[in-house]
Amino acid sequence: MEVLMWIITGILVLSSVLMCVVVLIQQTKSSGLGAAYGGDTVSFSQRGKAASREAKLQKITVVLAIVIAVMAIALMLIARFAGKSI
User: 13-71, pLDDT tens digit by residue?
Assistant: First the structure.
C-alpha cells in the first residue's frame, strides 16, 4: 500500500506541475481595449493555427484536471483503507 501511495502522489505532483505549465502557456481570451478600436492585425492563416493550438491546450487542461481529481480521490481512499492520515 505504501508503494502505491508514493506512485499516486508522484503522478499527482507531476500532473499538477504540468497543469500549471499548460495554463500559463495559454493565451488570454480578452483582447482588451485595443481590439475595440483597431482589431487584430493577424492574418487568417495565423489565426487558424493559433486557434488549433489553443484548442489542443484546452483539451490537455481538461484531461490534466480530470487526472488530478481522480488521483486525489484515489489517494484519499487508499489512505483511508490503509488507516493513515495524509
Answer: 999 999 999 999 998 776 555 555 655 555 556 666 667 889 999 999 999 999 999 99
Domain contains 8? yes
Domain count, the chain: 1
Q: Is residue 75 part of a domain?
A: yes
Q: Which residues constitute the domain of residue 78? A: 1-19+44-86
Nearest to 20 by CA among 75, 59, 78, 61: 61
- Long-range interactions of 70-75: CB distance < 8 A, separation 24+: 71/8, 71/11, 71/12, 71/15, 72/12, 74/8, 75/5, 75/8, 75/9, 75/12
